[in-house]
User: Fold these one by one.
Assistant:
Number 1:
Amino acid sequence: MEEDELFREYAKVCRHYGHIPSQAELRIATREIGTRTHRVQNRFGGLAPFNNRFKEWLSSAPQEFVDILTFPGWGRVPFGKGGRALEAASPIATARHPFLPVGLLALLELASNRLPQGFDTDLPPSLLFERKCADAFRALGFQVRNLGQGKGRAADCLALARPDRFAVIIDAKARTEGFALGTEDRKFIEYAKLHSDGLRGEGVERVYLCIVSSAFREKDVDVLRRALTGSGLHGWSLWPADVLMTTVEKSISERSDFRLSDLEQRFALNAVAT
């Protein structure tokens, strides 16, 4: 196909979805509207380079195509093996969070159990949220040990600050309406018993629990406080996803002054972090 004809076909797919499509959506559009665009990623060495050329074409294309420049989804990057790669961030998102790693810009949507537009993956948002929370604690400077993510009664990961001799048990909860405790206090007690002794055997003196979700209920704080008393934890806290994002961004923007030892007290709040 000539380049002009190919871009016109691609524009049909953009209009069909109302955004710049992912590779999976291109394959679906081939069946749904009969376009010949399912292999455009081979044209210029990948979908991102193709989109760059398409954007150049739009800048001089007939007026009927110009509005596609305002569509969301520009610059997406397909997922790699294991679903760990990320969509490219929109200019608005990166402007709002100039120091936040692009891979963590999706935390808010994933925390609400939603896949952001452009995530070309079969993995559920809850599992992706667990992985991104682990990445966030790596970005803070912790040594992160992945555990049984999405499986059984194991916490998602452990975040170790070995030089400061403390560790944090991380459990990520993707919830559309925010996290409600229910009977999960029993599981958190199990986490404390399961991990505290082992970590102390490795020379870790203080162990905390941090639960990350989209939002929390204030009334659960007292319930957790009673449940976790005597559990062996030195403290615990509830972190909304936006607090985790802000903390990571601040740790990078103020890197010369940031210390994990200064962050430790925030894991012992026994309340919803702000």
Note: Residues 77-89 have pLDDT under 50 and may be disordered.
Number 2:
Amino acid sequence: MRKLLAALSLALLATPALADPPKAVPNSMPQVQLTFAPVVKRIAPAVVNVYARSIVQAPMNPFFSDPLFSQLFGGNPGMRQRVQQSLGSGVIVRGDGVILTNNHVVQGGTDIVVALSDKREFKAKVLLADPRTDLAVLKIDTKGETMPTVPFGDSDKVQVGDLVLAVGDPFGVGQTVTMGIVSALARTQVSASDYQFFIQTDAAINPGNSGGALVTTDGKLAGINTAIYSRSGGSIGIGFAIPSNLARRVVEGAMGGGVKLAWVGVDGQSVTADIAASLGIAVPNGVLLKSVYPGGPAANAGLHVGDVIFSVDGQPTNDMQSLNYRIATHKAGDVVAMHVHLGRDAADIKVTLALPPENPPRQAQTIAGRNPLTGAKVANLSPAVATELQMPLMARGVVIMSVADGTPSGGYGFQPGDIVRGVNGVEITNVGQLVRALNGANAWSLVVDRGGQRLALNVQG
């Protein structure tokens, strides 16, 4: 499996529409010698540095971090606070000081500072931080000044072979511009975010470039530089950017009270050659549906288990990541066109998207008291919760949403996404049952489902 290092510090009118101008490669030396300086001069002031400072607990001596020491003497003796700082980049996308960057740049930060290209610094407020997309939206107080911006481009119009510029602050050396081409589109196995769908480029991207701009030669934002594939930590010409169409949705969500990504209500898998042959599909493309949520958008449009989705609005969908991305760039209530395979017949259908339902209600709470799950935040699974945690569509039960460091739940190795199936022989189906089972015992025998595997834990009080 490839190993990826996230780069941390990684209107319609009645008249006919004009066609995009044809693209051409340089055919003479003067054309080859053309400069990108005017584009850089225009966009560079809108690319900023982002510094995120956080305070972390660290042991004064490695001996104190030994679990046996803590068990014998209690607490966390010898711990001290340490200031940790991460460096990344960002892009001003609105003149009133709205900035787009990566979530991993600001995650955990309590003091966010934005430095402009003219060296002015501003304290920034985090309007939204979305781990699912690995995007964050910041806001600085411009005191009425209109800031330079990089306008959003249409990432669906980007083609393999297009020239692009990457702008950011690699390794903290200062604002740097690199050039390359779009090496590939629709990379979906990068694992840098839940909505995996990336533009790949060979423009040099290094630690510190995270959150910076990937820009087309006409000065439009094509994507947000997010990650690199590297064995050394430096650029080897394989960088990844989140497409601007998804980034635009996140910014819209941040300005409107939160990101509510549209949902179609299916789970599926890529169509292999064997599956294609069995279904009479000439070329192994599309997503074979393994589950369809009853009453969801797909089900209401007539899709069933075993059907295949080939495209959304004319854009191919060859795995769940690409399907999820295409849906996420829309809003709930939007109608999308799908080319599908129903049974053994091809068809074009319309699907009205929605938000994932929260049924049953999540009843989220953090487990307290004296038990192995103390410090874990749990909730009832629903399509909404399953979507947030990127879990199977039909998953049910009580799921661990997060685990706090330094608590029993963290010490026992519980992880977000674990489903608590039983406590002391009692089947757990909702949060209330779990709380009662934990609080009414002095010893605990827990059964947990982790990625389809059953794990058991026995703890004496």
Note: The first strand starts at residue 5 and ends at 6.
